[in-house]
Amino acid sequence: MSSHDPLPAAIDQLYAAFASLRRPTAIDWCRHCRSEDDIADLLGPAPLREISAQALRPYAVHVLTTIGDVVDFRYFLPRILEIACTTGFPWPDLEFLTVRLHLASWSTWDVEETAAIEALFRALWSKTIATFPGDPDASSVLNAIGNAGSNLSPYLRQWTTSLTRPPAAAALLDLLQHSPRSLGEAVQRTDSTAHDHEAQIVRWAVGPELRIAVAEAFAIAEAEELLQTLTDIDEILTWYPVT
Predict the structure, then answer these.
(1) φ and ψ at 67, to 5 degrees?
(2) Taking a C-beta distance cutoff of 8 angstroms, is the pair 92, 59 a contact?
(3) Which of 18, 21, 169, 178 has the fewest CB atoms nearer than 10 Å to its CB?
């Protein structure tokens, strides 16, 4: 595994892209749901990058519902995503937070801002399939990116071409074995009640390109552990018809 971590540079890019936004002087909030202290912590003197996860958490949980609007959300977003992608909040997790991105129609924002968010997703995904076990895991990261409304094809393609690397193969086996929904159940749901990104993951998992990639990786693999991982993946995939 490469020691290079692409995430710090992507986080720096995110802050730079949103740097022109001014800190809000006031935030709309539901008095029944949050306290004045919660709001004061956000409007206080601490620089954005130094706002604690504890201070930001109530806002992150309720933003765009009972607190805040898109304007202040854009300001706090770099810090929210930095925490979610690194140390993490106790709650909400990244999958929950990227739904807020979708609600805020982030794909319509300034080009530099959307490019920085996409770069963060790419960096997080590259780190995820280069590290096993990871937190968040591959399934969670894919769902988070999908929840934001992004097309998962580039991420799945990158995973397909990375199966000669033990962490990427191990992460795939983990997804197939421990996905919250069984693959068989998901296959039946792809044309009915499945979310678009869930259906996309399932079609990829049971499609021919992944099976070819597993076979090709097995043909050149030398490490016994990787060979066993690929064998286990292939065995699971044979349970399902190729779509």
Answers:
(1) -150, 140
(2) no
(3) 178
